[in-house]
């Protein structure tokens, strides 16, 4: 499929100024074939804002996103940084502080509905505060919320109202963190958009930033979602994405392991208990991802024979399209309570404080780290 232009006749969106294209629906400037003859011609995202008071999510790569972020520091802005609690370290924008300058940042921690109902939320909030400090991110407020359950959004809107003043509101976040849901709620609560809105009311001044007018003359600036390649959500196929991204509250799975035992997470990852006393490990992964236990000495053979079948998703065909696995060896110090975190897949909580040596096998590039236990 090709775009209906040639030579110098390159069409751009009348709403946000992005170059239009019809080949990739999830990327900036997408316009369906049947819409090319509209006047004025606008991309699908601007069309949805104009006609449905609703923003949709698009994504750009890191370099382009950082270029866009670099403009915020010189603005009078309130920044809402939305992250995914299930993939906190994977979705947090590293180095955000140096881009936003002295502008205040509200951290919206989405997908709280995925944690068990018995979760101690004060502990989670303290955990997030410490994590922000470790990453050098200064926040004026942290709001735990769930876009799916519409929980915490009133609290977030109150925080925005208290701190916005005469500022524009920039919303930033990685892909698949719920940014468009937040944008749409802000539109409903703060904007005077209606069915008669013309595209000239929200001219995006920068590539793929959409300026959504507020009733006081200021704007919500919808930035594209940043694509972080170290997250499983950016590596797996669309068919497998539903298996790794949980929709319902996580049901922690506890395994009593002896030294030399392995857990497979479908065919997407592997956790080895290499060395240590008998102890328990709790897995926090999507309920649609089956966990298989085996002996470490048989793990390579099992994967070779059953990847894409017993160990699935993905299928053998889709597994062949993913990067080869890399082994990460991690030592759990005695006296510590840590999670083994795999970006976008979940985490394994080490329940004992007697220490252990573990190894994680994930596709090359996936972020793996040790962190203080979330819950």
TrEMBL record:
Coiled coil: none annotated. Residues 62-229 form the CP-type G domain. InterPro entries: G_CP_dom, GTP-bd, GTP-bd_ribosome_bgen_YqeH, Mito_lipid_metab_GTPase, NOA1/YqeH-like_C, P-loop_NTPase. SUPFAM superfamilies: P-loop containing nucleoside triphosphate hydrolases (SSF52540). Gene3D superfamilies: P-loop containing nucleotide triphosphate hydrolases (3.40.50.300). Pfam families: MMR_HSR1, YqeH-like_C. PANTHER family: GENETIC INTERACTOR OF PROHIBITINS 3, MITOCHONDRIAL (PTHR46434:SF1). NCBIfam families: GTPase_YqeH (TIGR03597). This is Ribosome biogenesis GTPase YqeH. It comes from Paenibacillus campinasensis. The gene is yqeH.
